[in-house]
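Quick one:
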Amino acid sequence: MKNETLRTELNNLERKVKLLLSDYAQLKADFDKSQAENQHLRTQIEDQHSKISSFQNQTKISKIVESMVVGENDSEELKDVIDGYIKEINKCIAHLGEA
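Output:
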């Protein structure tokens, strides 16, 4: 009788250990997945901040160009040239970000 009780308790303990190991494995997988997602989201946030900064710079430059005292045709031409420069700079920044 005593052996049966010990075996039953041992089996119960073994079952509980297996359940705990299974739970641990699932929690670890969930944690790893969350960490990967967290890193991905951090990267997206950095990209968004970079884009926002770029757009703010474009807006500032556009305001500077618009506030300059030049003829109407000269203003448009200057704005187009500066916009071209901004696009080239943004391409360079994007290229450096990929490296």
